[in-house]
Write a structure and sequence with these properties.
single chain; Serine Threonine Protein Phosphatase 5, Tetratricopeptide repeat; alpha/beta; Spore Coat Polysaccharide Biosynthesis Protein SpsA, Chain A; eight-stranded mixed sheet; three-stranded mixed sheet
Length: 426
């Protein structure tokens, strides 16, 4: 009998070890953990339960488990407990509560990079830009969803000036006929993405936006193939504008060049807004227009700027705003916003340390938060179809207006073979 008891206990211990080592989303909420937390509650056990509920999206039960843990001895110095509580409150849009909890976690482990980054993000979103800037100046690493690290120096609100400038020469290759446009769809690209998505994007704009929308391609360092693509697109579509930028990127590695391409739209937005005198839709070249974009323009209304903002990501400033879609109006504040974007982009790109992943979204978030007197509108995330499958045919007017092709490499390859995308290539 005693041998069987020992064997059973050993199995329970081993199961518990594996349970703690696994990710909550990969396991069910073990009844023995719940029972143990009830019979002999501890901060560790309740934290495991709270983590499970949080990663399952059940914020109410996650908060309940955290609250119970806070009442137990040892909770005052439990970094993970206070950090998780801050994440829960941030997800619940309780930013003051999130700041208080993350600040508590930061006081326990002041050098923890997660606490430094999250506290800086939350402080920035609550208007405490100076303190946020001091935290971001510590330049801690942040792991992005793609597994690529980025660094908080890209989020500086009051950066030091860096010597140097961007060596770039601009020219116009294709100019449209003089006409008043209802809006401009502005994209920036390199030769590879122009060849892969340029034609399909032009066809999607033609089908769904009408002839009074101007499609503006800004191409960085085009090769011969890119010029042939430009000619083919301009011959097939009427209201097209193409500008070319010859930029000296000899000191950029391959990853830094991709960062430059993603930010190049911010360098020409100000001039585009001044020339066209109509709203400018700033988007990724791989984002197709799949339906009438009127809901997007209705969202902008009489505001200065419309952005794709995720209010439950205030603890994660790199993902607080998405650079995939934005609209800037030709108002005084809209012009100021576009100028601030350009200046911030120029300052960031000359600093090698800041040529890091998600720099485009970092610049956008910093500009957005600093220009607090700008009238903003929030674009609904439902306007963008991110799924692997076909965009919806039966849908509400403001759902699936745009189709973001490059969501991940694997999904991208699947999307390129879908009938909806292939039809745009004809």
């Amino acid at each position: 009998m005693q041998g069987k008891v020992k064997e059973l206990l050993a199995r329970i211990v081993e199961h518990s070890r594996k349970f703690r080592a696994s990710k909550p989303r990969e396991r069910g909420l073990d009844g023995r953990i719940v029972l143990a937390a009830r019979l002999s509650p501890s901060v560790r056990r309740l934290l495991e339960i709270a983590e499970f509920y949080f990663e399952s999206g059940d914020l109410e039960n996650a908060a309940r488990a955290v609250k119970r843990a806070e009442e137990l001895p040892g909770s005052e110095q439990a970094f993970d407990l206070w950090f998780l509580n801050g994440l829960i409150k941030a997800r619940q849009i309780d930013l003051d509560g999130a700041v208080a909890s993350i600040r508590k976690a930061h006081s326990i482990l002041p050098d923890n990079p997660h606490a430094v980054y999250c506290l800086g993000s939350l402080l920035a979103c609550t208007g405490e830009l100076t303190e946020a800037d001091m935290l971001f100046a510590r330049n801690v690493p942040v792991l992005t969803g793609a597994g690529t690290p980025t660094y908080t120096c890209a989020l500086r609100f009051f950066p030091e000036n860096v010597d140097g400038s961007i060596n770039r020469v601009l020219s116009s290759v294709v100019e449209p006929n003089e006409k008043h446009n209802a809006a401009v769809y502005l994209v920036a690209t390199d030769s590879v993405y122009l060849g892969r998505y340029g034609g399909a994007l032009a066809e999607s704009v033609r089908r769904n936006c009408g002839e009074n929308w101007l499609l503006h391609y800004h191409v960085v360092n085009p090769d011969e193939t890119a010029y042939r693509t430009i000619q083919a697109i301009s011959e097939a579509h009427k209201n097209i504008r193409v500008t070319v930028e010859e930029a000296d990127l000899s000191e950029y590695d391959d990853a830094e060049k991709k960062v430059y391409y993603s930010c190049a739209r911010y360098l020409v937005l100000e001039d585009c807004l001044r020339m066209q005198k109509c709203p400018i839709v700033v988007a990724d070249i791989d984002q197709m227009v799949m339906a009438d974009p009127s809901p997007l323009m209705e969202t902008l209304g009489d505001r200065d700027v419309a952005v794709l903002r995720f209010s439950d990501q205030a603890n994660n400033l790199f993902s607080y705003l998405s650079a995939t879609l934005m609209v800037v109006s030709p108002t005084a504040k809209g012009h100021q916003f576009s100028r601030a974007l350009r200046l911030s982009t120029e300052l960031a790109l000359v600093d090698k340390a800041k040529r890091t992943w998600h720099l485009d979204q970092a610049i956008l978030a910093v500009t957005y938060l600093k220009a607090s007197d700008t009238a903003y509108a929030d674009i609904s995330p439902t306007m963008i179809h991110l799924g692997v499958g076909e965009p919806p045919v039966e849908r509400e007017p403001a759902v699936g207006v745009f189709w973001s092709i490059t969501n991940s490499l694997e999904e991208n390859l699947q999307k390129l073979n879908l009938p909806s995308f292939l039809s745009l290539m004809r």
